[in-house]
Design a protein that fits this description.
The complex is a heterodimer.
Chain A: H1 2-30, H2 42-52, H3 63-94, H4 96-109, H5 118-125, H6 129-153, H7 157-165, H8 170-207, H9 213-222, H10 226-254
Helix pairs in contact in A: 2-10, 3-4, 3-6, 3-8, 3-9, 5-6, 6-8, 8-9, 8-10, 9-10
Chain B: H1 3-8, E1 10-23, E2 26-39, E3 43-47, H2 54-62, E4 69-74, E5 77-78, E6 86-89, H3 101-105, H4 107-111, H5 116-129, H6 145-158, E7 163-167, H7 175-191, E8 195-200, H8 203-209, E9 212-216, E10 223-228, H9 240-252
Parallel strand pairs in B: 3-8, 3-9, 6-7, 7-8
Antiparallel strand pairs in B: 1-2, 1-4, 4-5, 9-10
Helix pairs in contact in B: 5-6, 6-7, 8-9
Classes of the chains: A mainly alpha, B alpha/beta.
Bound molecules: adenosine-5'-triphosphate and magnesium ion.
Adenosine-5'-triphosphate (ATP) binds near residues 48, 51 and 55 of chain B.
């Protein structure tokens, strides 16, 4: 049953994708009613994609160099957000004192989207590595912290009681009851944060950069190379999906015995 | 052979227990002057109408919640908070879903710092006792309701408490499983003797299980009557004496509106 369903789902996805590319091909390459300066055919995009692996022109670097540059910034900001955000969210939820001090600051920053920080960061830190890492960090820490916080709050009284009857200390209740309870929520936060981080890096590079996928797209717009723009978009999509899948894999190893949240 | 002398030793002595909850909307008296002694290895059932204060009574007797007045002594020591000498089995899945059956059962000894080989051996003994051999590595969500309660019982036993408190542990099970678990808990208790305070609102269940039934009134609850049950085990639900007693207690029990 389950297996048949996934197979059906796979077939349907392939069919709809093929249909989409087919229509695109039909209008651009067969009917040629759209100028290749506006929208190139999928064949053209594909050859550009292959070409960009070795060809640094016209934007100064190959596709891999751009992708690695974006990835390096994203992962630095993102991982820092996890390393700081998860413990902080947990501490806020478990120790009322921490909540008291951190919450006002956090509530203030929460509604400001990550990209809104870009102009300020450019002035403060320039258009290099540091400013973008900071922006990524800010946009990723919000969902990480929020979900870790609410995950700890899911801890059930009855679980605490049982632990207490076993003589568990406050620290043991945190590490052995509350944190395992929060794990699926923490992982959700980490997944959401990845999306936020990856979106933000592209946006940040569109505004100010010297390399990266967003930069490549921005450069190509100036010289009317929609094929490279699409290659950039597809690459962003592929990397985002691969990272997402990787997280799901980690999650399925870490979170046992529970249905997903 | 020392059964008689053992039975006479009091494990729980509760004197003048009352409990009043106070919140914004005022205060409610839930327990009114309960005096109760539970003897060693006794299977005591607390029976009462719905919402009468059974859970509150168990929480106070076990030290999960402080009494408003009165004292509870366990083995001669006044209790004010939960401790490892008291174990719990709750109605719903109070199991840790992120731990396997083994992980759940060995949890108590692990918290107390018992070394791995020793606690594993102990946990395995109780897993086998509750009939879950072969399920050590399953997660709770892979088990049926009845099996989950078996894990809960093994977990409570594995910490080797003096008293086991069970608050409607079979309340969420279907009738078939419930009968089976009633047989099982008696079998387990007869193998690994322990003092048990068992809450139920099911009179039939109480007569099947208990050495003694303590019948509670509506709120504010107090003890209405006690019944000593001497029927030999395993008991027969259809025995005329059983049915007569069931009738008697049913008539005696307060009706809930
Ligand atoms: N923390 C509390 N604050 C205020 N009132 C409470 C509190 N806990 C219980 N009560 C009240 O005490 C009464 C008895 O509750 P309790 O849960 O002890 O009854 P019960 O006999 O266990 O019920 P049930 O048959 O549903 O298990 C209820 O009316 C309940 O609203
Ligand atoms: Mg109750």
């Amino acid at each position: 049953m389950q297996k048949n369903k996934t197979l059906l789902y796979l077939i349907l996805s392939i069919v709809s994708l093929a249909l989409f590319i087919g229509i695109w091909y039909y209008f651009t390459a067969v009917l040629q009613i759209v100028s290749p300066k506006t929208l190139p055919s999928p064949v053209k995009v594909f050859t550009t994609f292959i070409d960009k692996f070795t060809n640094p022109n016209p934007d100064g670097a190959t596709l891999l160099v751009h992708a690695l540059s974006s990835l390096k910034i994203t992962l630095t900001g993102y991982l820092t957000a996890i390393v700081i955000g998860v413990p902080l969210g947990i501490a806020m939820a478990w120790y009322p004192k921490v909540d008291l001090y951190v919450r006002p600051i956090f509530d203030l920053l929460k509604p400001i989207p990550g990209v809104a920080w870009v102009p300020l960061m450019i002035i403060m830190l320039g258009i290099g590595f540091a400013s973008k890492v900071t922006v990524i960090f800010i946009s990723a820490i919000v969902p990480v912290l929020l979900n870790s916080y609410s995950g700890i709050k899911q801890t059930r009284d009855v679980h605490i009681w049982v632990a207490r009857t076993f003589g568990a200390s406050d620290w043991q209740m945190l590490t052995r009851i509350a944190i395992p309870t929060s794990l699926p929520y923490v992982m959700t936060g980490i997944r959401v944060a990845l999306g936020a981080a990856w979106t933000t890096i592209v946006a940040a590079e569109l505004i100010a950069s010297t390399e990266g996928l967003g930069f490549m797209i921005q450069q190509s717009r100036g010289i009317y190379r929609p094929d490279i723009i699409i290659v950039g978009m597809v690459t962003i999509g592929i990397i985002g999906s691969v990272l997402g899948l990787l997280l799901m894999l980690i999650e399925s190893v870490l979170v046992k015995g529970r249905s997903k949240v | 052979m020392d059964e008689a002398r053992h039975m006479s030793k009091s494990i729980i002595v509760a004197q003048g227990i009352s409990k009043t909850f106070t919140n914004k909307r005022g205060s409610t008296k839930v327990i009114e002057n309960i005096n109760l002694e539970v003897r060693e290895n006794e299977f005591l059932c607390l029976v009462g109408p719905g919402q009468c204060g059974k859970t509150t009574a168990v929480n106070v007797l076990s030290g999960l919640e402080p009494a408003s007045t009165g004292t509870v002594k366990i083995n001669g020591k006044t209790i004010t908070r939960p401790g490892p000498d008291r174990g719990f089995v709750f109605q719903s899945t109070a199991l840790y879903p992120w731990l396997t059956v083994m992980g759940n059962v060995e949890y108590g000894p692990k918290v107390r710092g018992i070394k791995k080989s020793e606690r594993r051996e102990k946990a395995q003994y109780y897993i086998n006792l509750v009939g879950l051999e072969g399920f050590e590595h399953s997660y709770p969500n892979q088990l049926s309701g009845g099996m989950q309660q078996r894990v809960g019982i093994a977990r409570a036993y594995c910490n080797e408490p003096v008293v086991l408190f069970m608050d409607q542990p079979f309340g969420a099970l279907d009738a078939q499983t419930r009968y089976l678990m009633q047989e099982e808990i008696i079998r387990i208790w007869e193998t690994a003797k322990r003092t048990i305070v068992f809450v139920t609102n099911n009179i039939e269940e109480a007569i099947y299980l208990a050495d003694r039934i303590v019948l509670l009134t509506n709120t504010p609850t107090q003890i209405k009557k006690e019944y000593k049950i001497d029927f030999p085990r395993p008991r027969d639900y259809t025995d005329p004496d059983f049915l007569a007693l069931r009738e008697e207690i049913t008539n005696e029990m307060d009706k809930t509106l």
